[in-house]
Amino acid sequence: MNGNLLTISQLSRGEIEEVLDVTDTMVEVSSRRIPKVPALRGRTVVSMFYEDSTRTRLSFESAAKRLSADVMSFSVASSSTRKGESLRDTVATLEAMGVDAFVVRHRSSGVPAMVARWSTAAVVNAGDGWHAHPTQALLDAYTIRSHFGSAEGLRVGIIGDILHSRVARSLMVVLERLGAEVTLVAPPTLLPPSTDAWRVGVSHDLDSVIGGFDVVYALRMQRERMTEAHLPSLREYTECYGLTPRRAAELSERAVIMHPGPMNRGVEISEALADSPRSLVTDQVANGVAVRMAVLYLLLGPGREALGEELSGAREST
What we know:
Structural class: alpha/beta
CATH architecture of the largest domain: 3-Layer(aba) Sandwich
Helix content: 25-40%
Order of helices and strands: HEHEHEHEHEHEEHEHHEHHH
Radius of gyration: 20 Å
Distance between the termini: 30 Å
CATH class of the largest domain: Alpha Beta
Largest sheet: 5 strands, parallel
CATH topology of the largest domain: Rossmann fold
Number of helices: 12
C-alpha cells in the first residue's frame, strides 16, 4: 500500500489480499486477553469526520488504540470550522501538531484526496460523498473470505440504493478483483445513468434473481443524499426490493445476508432476517476493527516483514 488509501481502485488484487492476510493477524490480536500491541507506538492518528458516523469512526479509533497509536478526534461542532476556518487551514493546523495519519470522512466527494495533496501525512478515506468507502469494502471482502474461504466464483447481489452508495462503488471493485460475480439489483431510478464502466450485471427484478446469489448485500435508502423523489413510497420499495422472510426462503442453503449499516429494519431488511443465522452483520462490525488495524499498520508500521516479530513479542509480554 503506497502512502494513502483513497479508493479501492488504487489497490491491485495482490495488495487487497495483503490487507486481508494482515487482517488475519489483527483478528488474532483482538482475541487476546489484552487486545493491544505496540506496533504504532509514537504515531498519531487524527479522525476528521465532517459527517455523522458511529461504526466507522469508533472502529478506526479502536483500531489505532489497539496498535498503541495516539488518537486525536476532531469535532466539527466544537472546532474553529464554526468560525469560518477553511479545511486547508484545519489540515495545516493539525499537521503542525505532529500528525502521522488523517482518517477523513466528508459529505463531498474528493475531500480525502485534497487532504492528501495538502499534507505529507498518510490519508485514509473513511467515506466521501457518493464516491468511495475503501475500508468498508475491505472489511466486507474479509467477512466473505472468512465465511466462504474465498470470494472467487461467488455470486453476489448488491440490492438497493446504488445511485447514492459509496459502499456499493467500492464493493463492486474489490469483489470483481477477487473473482466474484456481482449483480446490481435496484429500480432504474436508484441506479446511475450508466453502469458500463463496471463489470457487473444489472436486474430490476429481485424475485427473479435472488435464488442464484451466495451473498445478498442490502443497502439502505440514503435519503440524506436525495434531492428528489426516486420512489412512490418506502412501502412500495420494501414490497419490491426488501429482504423479507418470503424472499429468504428462495435463497440457497449456504447463502448469507450482509448490510453495511445503519440498517432501516422493516424497509430494506426485515427484523427477522437482520438477526437470523444467515446474517453476517455483526461479523462485519467486528471485522471492521481488524481490517482498519491492518490498513493503519501497512501505512504507518515498520513493514509486513516485521509484523510477526512485533506481535509475537507483544504476546509474550502480555
